[in-house]
Amino acid sequence: MNVSQYISHKIDGADSGSFTSSVTKIAIISIAMGLAVMIVSFAILEGFRNEIQNKIFSFGAHLQITKYDTNNSLEVAPINGQQLTQELRTFPQVKTVQPFAIKTAIIKTRDEVLGVVLKGIDEPQAGSSPMRQNLVAGKFLTFPDTAASNDVLLSRKVADKLRLKVGDEALFYFIQNPPRIRRFKVSGIYQTGLDEFDEVYVIGDIRQIRDLRAWPDSLVGGMEVVLRDFQQLNPVADNMYEQLPYDLKLDKITEQYQQLFDWLKLLNRNVVIFLVLIIVVATFNMIATIFIMILERTNMIGVLKAIGATDNQIRSMFFFRGLSLTVRGMLWGNVIGLGFCAVQYFFHVIPLDPENYYMDRVPIHWDLLIIVVLNVATFLASLLAVLVPTYLISRIRPVTAIKFD
């Protein structure tokens, strides 16, 4: 331990009961609360982002390929699913390829009538379908080997409007020539919290739609493509679009549900501004704390200079003092921030209204890299705040400082 560290350690205990002691406690609390709020803010922000993105991806995947249609109709012309699947799997960035088909319908019960969109999926997709995470009642679709399944999944909103529950049956009317009627059984009820899906979609067996539209097994309404890395969406989509046949349309999930992704970007921007303000306040408090330390120790600084101490040695003394405060503040900040996140993650103590926030509780996402970056940023900002006021020491004259009261 050098002289500067030794003196810094000694005055740490000597400050007890003085005005500096109160100020240093405020500095520690400022750093601790600032870091804790940043950790919690990023954990919640990433939690919201992941939860909402996963709900969107459970319906639309990253890319959607359909037949080009100038009428912008939901029921587009079919495409050869087997051939397109082989072509898409040649792209190294593609993780999975999932066929689907869509058919508009009218559900009629004894008392209610409601228009919906029946989205058909196949059994391989269903086996690992992310839709399973949205189930709130019942079970997922079953796929018999011999015939199309009569099971369907309704959203909570659709089920409530039609007064249906798991196990009930309902008539689906399909407007075509000639009109067709199918009786389906509600095997499960899902809830995403996103009105874009919950108010519209019913999930069923793709073979039912093939039968209604008289398609062979090779035809599908479109293909949903899941990428290995969502961050590579734009370059992969551009490359894929150049290699697809001219009569196929490629839609990115960020364009299909642009309002949701724009909302996520807005959240991110607001949190960044908020965090910058927190760091500025914590930095200002640290600067003020060191200034007060220097003013209260002006006599000691004069004495140290008089006996030969250099400005750098005295500056290092206050630097180590500020470093000690920073480390203690960061330690408490991590305990508070990570502790709060752990309590919310495991016990869900803070609920949310799904109607407004798309989920029933405050989500938490653990990201070690972000936690490390926040700690490093807080540490560097605090050290910079410590260094700035220490340059005042070089302007203190020993004779004047010794007489200072």
Automatic annotation (TrEMBL):
The record's Gene Ontology biological-process terms are: lipoprotein localization to outer membrane
Its GO CC terms are: plasma membrane protein complex
Q: Report the InterPro entries cross-referenced here.
A: ABC3_permease_C, Lipoprotein-release_system, MacB_PCD
In the bilayer, the protein is annotated as:
Multi-pass membrane protein
Identify the residues that the record assigns to the MacB-like periplasmic core domain, covering every copy: 26-238
Q: Name the principal localization, coarsely classed.
A: membrane
Q: Which domain of life is it from?
A: Bacteria
Q: Where are the transmembrane segments?
A: 26-45, 271-295, 325-348, 368-393
Give the ABC3 transporter permease C-terminal domain ranges.
Answer: 273-397
Instruction: State what protein this is by name.
Output: ABC transporter permease
Which cell locations does it reside in?
Answer: Cell membrane
Phylogenetic classification of the source organism: Bacteria, Pseudomonadati, Bacteroidota, Cytophagia, Cytophagales
Q: Which family does it belong to?
A: Belongs to the ABC-4 integral membrane protein family. LolC/E subfamily.
Provide this UniProt record's keywords sorted from A to Z: Cell membrane, Membrane, Transmembrane, Transmembrane helix
Q: Which organism is it from?
A: Hymenobacter aerilatus
